[in-house]
Amino acid sequence: MSKVCCVTGKKPAVGHNVSHSNRKTKRRFLPNLMSKKVFNPKTGKWEKLRISTNGLRTLTKRMK
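Request: output the structure for the sequence above.
Response:
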């Protein structure tokens, strides 16, 4: 299963671990994904989404 948010489109970012002596090694910043069931009013059904917590906040804000 891919690590991509279906609402915001966030995906893993690449960066460096930087030590005290300033040596750099590659690392990945993964999005904070959760599996959530969300009600779709158009279809009248519950859909299971892989959504980031930021995307969940966006959905909640749009629902109000």
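The chain has a mean pLDDT of 94.
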